[in-house]
User: Fold these one by one.
Assistant:
Number 1:
Amino acid sequence: MQQVVLKSARVIAATALVVSGVCLVGLAPRARAQQSAVSSPRASGAASRGRAVYEQHCVECHGREGKGDGPAALTLVPHPRDFTSGRYKIRSTESGSPPTDADLIRSISQGLPGSSMPGWRGLISDADILAVVEYIKSLSPRFAQQQPEPITASAPVQPSAESVRRGAGVYATLQCAKCHGEDGRGSGAAATRFEDDWGYPMRAAVLSEPWTFRGGAAASDIYMRFRAGVSGTPMPSYKDTASESEMWDLANYVVSLRRKPVWEMGADEVSAFYKQQDAEALADPVKRGEYLVDVLACPICHSPADQDRRTIPGMRMAGGLRLYLAPFGTYPTGNLTSDKETGLGNRTDDEIKRVLTKGILRDGTRLLPFPMDWPSFSTMKESDLNAIVAYLRTVPPVRNKVPRPTRTLLPVFLWGKFKMLILGEDVPSYIYGGNTGIVAGGPR
Ligand code: HEC
Ligand code: HEC
Ligand code: HEC
């Protein structure tokens, strides 16, 4: 699916700009409010250096108080870690026990591949990494109450065709395909989309792309994820369900699923790879549409959020999030579910497509080129627009009647444009928690 990313780079970049612009500006007052609220008696001595490092490099994503709610967090999947919970994904310790310092140092130094968590080695000094580890540990009482119980890895089963074959058997017995698909790429999986323990969206790993594994791609890393489990996610520890050698065979099997990444391919291989991806997209427009909707961040604007900016349960794509862009007006987002009355159920394909390509809304009025960046959506291929519509048709109906956006009067529009273009001022924009829509006949 890399191709989409390349081809629609403009679309994505523009959307990201709009979305990040909206959240960064919108959340700034909140971040400032939090700053004054920080009072950390625990931060003393070495931890005060850690706190300084944290405030300089980590707050944008992890938030002032370490709750994972920094201004950049809204658009990130997976969501930044909430350090106050004391729960960590990447551990070499028994399930239910906190990570070791070495685990945290490793995650911070190398980053968590496949997420926005950067690797900090070389960017900040090793001493600062140690200091920030102490600081984030001080944010949860867990580290004072519980000692990590490190796991001693058993002797590895050397990779061989035989071990890979046995691993395939273990994969079947343990029903990994339920979440990862028969092929490790989600085909035939019961579900690949989940919520983490904090209520934020996440996806099952694509096993043919080990460069996205948070804990590393080596057989020993993968073995440790089965042995220790991945806290906060549906990935359990298999300590009691599989033997040591089975976990090693399984790790060797997962390693064997690796496909060649684009950056290791020659020009011919790259074009063959993209051709195959195009063919897969055409063969399964709903899957393609779901992918596009995710990367173009449609659910972020078109779902109502609670005060922690989590989608209100059961309301994904049901609209009702309120955006305010001064001085242009208030924009409650539309209901994109297949509900006939309040969603897109009764809309024709062309009506939906003209919103995305021309900004023409259901009552014939036109949306300004913001907050939804339809001018960049309009550059999409016809087959991609069709795929988005095909996917939207499958979104389960939710009744949520959302009010219309305010009409921007010409003088207000001109004043706004003058401020942006001539005075060079940013458009102050805000995202409000809660649902502006009226939910009918549903227990919510
Ligand atoms: C650009 C955003 C971003 C910045 C900046 C950032 N992080 Fe993260 N961090 C993340 C995300 C996203 C995750 C969660 C990834 C996941 O759950 O797979 C994460 C997870 C973590 C984890 C949890 C690892 C685990 O096992 O669960 C640690 C520890 C961490 N970050 C430390 C830091 C520190 C220390 C800094 C500053 C030096 C920092 N991060 C800066 C985005 C960021
Ligand atoms: C209930 C669903 C579920 C089952 C069953 C499951 N997984 Fe996962 N798995 C996930 C999710 C969700 C993630 C993503 C975790 C994350 O993003 O941090 C994941 C992540 C992984 C990873 C990447 C770990 C990393 O470092 O990021 C591997 C490898 C993996 N699973 C293999 C397996 C294998 C092999 C099995 C069978 C023994 C299995 N999984 C069973 C849901 C599942
Ligand atoms: C930055 C926020 C934002 C993003 C991202 C966004 N939209 Fe919108 N969208 C809006 C706003 C605001 C409206 C106007 C409100 C309305 O008409 O109900 C709107 C209107 C719509 C409408 C018309 C709804 C109606 O009831 O007539 C559709 C359809 C739509 N968007 C689809 C999408 C799709 C598909 C994507 C992703 C490709 C997307 N939007 C991304 C904010 C956004």
Note: The pocket of heme C (ligand 3) is lined by residues 15, 18-19, 22, 293, 296-298, 301-302, 323, 331, 333-334, 336, 352, 355-356, 361-362, 367, 371-372, 377, 388, 402, 405 (CB under 6 Å).
Number 2:
Amino acid sequence: MQNRRGFFQAAGAVALGAAAVSRVGAASLPEAPVQSSAATLPPPPPPNGRPFNPVVTLNGWSLPWRMNQGVKEFHLVCEPVVREFAPGMKVNMWGFNGTSPGPTIEAVEGDRIRIFVTNKLPEPTAIHWHGIMLPSGMDGVSGLTQPGIPVGKTFVYEFTLLRSGSHFYHPHLDEQLQLAMGMHGCLVVHPKDPRLHKVDRDFMFMLTSYDIEPGAMTPKISTMTEFNLWTWNSRVFPGIDPLVARTGDRVRIRVGNLTMTNHPIHMHGPSFEVTGTDGGWVPKAARWPEVTTDVAVGQLRALEFEAAAGDWAIHCHKSHHTMGPMGHNLPTMLGVEQRDLAQRIGKLVPDYMAMGDKGMHEMSEMEMPLPENTLPMMTGQGPFGAIGMGGMFSVVKVRDDMKPGDYRDPGNYKHPPGSVAHEFTGDVPVPLRAAPVQPDHKHQVRKPTGHEGH
Ligand SMILES: [Cu+2]
């Protein structure tokens, strides 16, 4: 596997010069760098072309390019990949250049880009550049604007980026299957004037969902609505990296949705404004404060805020979307006395556990036998115990002393003394309640008989 920084050092120093072009031949394909890691790889500053402030793809990476006579050339390879969703679970997927999502493509307004797409899947594909204004024939709709890219062939897409914004790419052929298998990636067009829409930290991720039976390794491709894995860039909590910033930073988070349902993305702490969509930037006068923004299917929302010190949860507000696959299809056992039942079932099913009669929180603290290669219903450890989350959940970690460009997990927040919720240890008087209503023989309920009227 190619180390991305290594590639850039090599590419920046050698491969992008004239010597490298003659080495590989001017008409040949640009290199197709490959990743297998699911770690967040903050991109280095662009080695050539117009300057821009790169995005940080959560648990992802950006695709290096080759400059060829003023045209930025990228090479995407569609291929089967294995993605770790979180420690303990790996998934057979289809992706690009070793990962699902594929690498983020970053360029600048006014750039001419050429994207080579090589198809190493077992069936044809075609790639659509979502939200980009381009010649119709470059739009990637199989049958309508181009034939599908046959197995083993490479197609070329070439267009000029007319405006800046947040976009993504995905197949437009056998979409139900190819999206269900994980084919997608981010595409960012930076403003030509880097002072416009400037932020200190710029994160991006895509919402996707999968249906993978506990113990299985391949998504079910015929599922239409009942998904059980809710992911950000094909990762689930606690496999999703934190979004790290410094106090006072202007932070942008770009969230695109390729699932089959909407996701109200909610952030704790500072309020934010939606400053952009996949259609462009929102004019300042049209923005308003929010703490939750709904990202509908096929939409993208870019939200911006001033970072305040602390550990702030950020998550989808649909509670079953912050839950692992084992949480689905559970019976409601609240208030059900199961002790006898558990004993009897235990004779038939070893390892059977009664659970849930007082709620499900105990699930986040107990070691429960799981089928191989699946994730619990809720998990994750914080400084105060089990976090009890899974799926679409992460933490915005803001510290006073983060250095620019440092995205490493700073650990748990050190709360100022006296600023953490704690047990009240004084006297707790019996709370006053309204007196219960006494049954009164004068006011007994009478069943209407239909023959009482006088
Ligand atoms: Cu959701």
Note: The helical segments are 4-15, 18-24, 175-180, 339-348.
